Amino acid sequence: MSQSEYAVYVENLSRCFGSFKAVSDVSFKVKSGEIFGFLGANGAGKTTTIRMLCGLLMPSSGNAVIAGYNVFTDAEKIKHNIGYMAQRFSLYEDLTVKENIEFYGGVYGLSRKQIKIKTEELLDYLKLWDHADKLTLSLPLGWKQRIALSTALLHDPGIIFLDEPTSGVDPESRRNFWTLIYQLSGKGKTIFVTTHYMDEAGFCNRLSIMKDGKIIELDQPKVLKRKYNANSMQKVFMSVIKGKKT
Beta strands of the chain (E only): which ranges? Predict the structure, then answer.
C-alpha cells in the first residue's frame, strides 16, 4: 500500500522539549477501519504522539500524514478531518448535554440545520435522550465520556483519536464504551486509542507498546501472546517492558 492509502502514516516522528526527547523516531501505519491501540506507562510518550498526530503539537522531526494531510503543513485541515477525545474531560459542565453538543457543532462550523440533525442523531445513537436537558456536571463519568465522544463525532470524521477514553469509569461503562468503538469501526471509522487497561488492549486489531518515547513492540494481540508465551495482555506488557522474550 502507498502512503496515501493509510489513514495514519507515521515515519521517524520525534518531539523534543529542550534536551528531553519525549518521542523518539516513532514509525507505524494504520489502515482505514482499524482499531489501533497505543500502550505504555505514564510518561511513555503516548499523549505527546497523539497531540502531534492531531495537529495540536508540532513535531521536531520526521513525517506523518493523517487522513491525507501532512502534520507540518496541514495542521488545521487535520483538526477538521479527525475526531479527538482528550484524556481529561473537556466539556462545559455548566451546560446541558444538548447544549454541549450544539456548542461543539458551532465550533466545527456546522450550520444550524446540520447541528440540529447531528444532535438528534447522536442523542439517539449514544442513548443520551434521557440526559439531554441535564447539566453535564450532574452526570456520572461514564455518561460524560459518552457526551465527549458525541462531540468528537459531530462532523462525521473518518479517524477518531481517543486518549484513555475509559480512564476512571466503572467496568460496565468501559464495556459499553468499547461496544460503541466496535460499532464505529464497523462503519469504517479508524479508531486510534490509548489505554492503560490491559484487557482493553486485547480488543484492538493491532497495538503498539511504547517505552521511553519509542515503540518497542507492534502486532496483533494474539500474535504478541504467542510470541511472549502469555495468556493475558498484562503478562505480554510486563514481558515487553522488562525486555523478556521467549
Answer: 8-17, 20-30, 35-40, 61-66, 69-70, 82-85, 159-163, 190-194, 206-211, 214-219
Cα of 81 vs its chain's centroid, Å: 14
pLDDT tens-place string over residues 152-202:
888 889 999 998 888 777 788 888 889 889 999 999 999 999 887 888 899
C-beta separation of 81 from 67 below 8 A: yes
Q: Is 94 helix (H, G, I), strand (E, B) or coil?
A: coil
> Cβ of 225: how many Cβ atoms within 10 Å?
17
- 50: nearest Cα among 184, 191, 153, 188: 191
> Cβ distance 240 to 201 under 8 Å?
no
Distance in angstroms (rounded) separating the CA atoms of residues 50 and 57: 9
Measured CA to CA, the distance from residue 172 to residue 82 in angstroms comes to 27
C-alpha cell of residue 128: 443520551
CA angle in degrees (0–180, nearest 5) for 177-178-182: 125
What are 31's three cell numbers? 489502515
Give the single-character DSSP code of 230: -
The percent helix, strand, coil of the chain (3-state, each to 5) is 40, 25, 35
- ∠8-11-17 over CA atoms, to 5°? 105
Residue 74's CB: how many other CB atoms inside 10 A?
Answer: 17
- Could you report the per-residue pLDDT of 110-166, keeping only the tens digit for each? 899 998 998 888 888 878 898 889 998 888 877 888 888 888 888 889 999 998 888
Which grid coordinates belong to 230?
Answer: 502469555
* Tally of CB atoms within 10 A around 36: 22
Residues 6+ positions from 119 with CB-CB distance below 8 Å: 98, 101, 102, 105
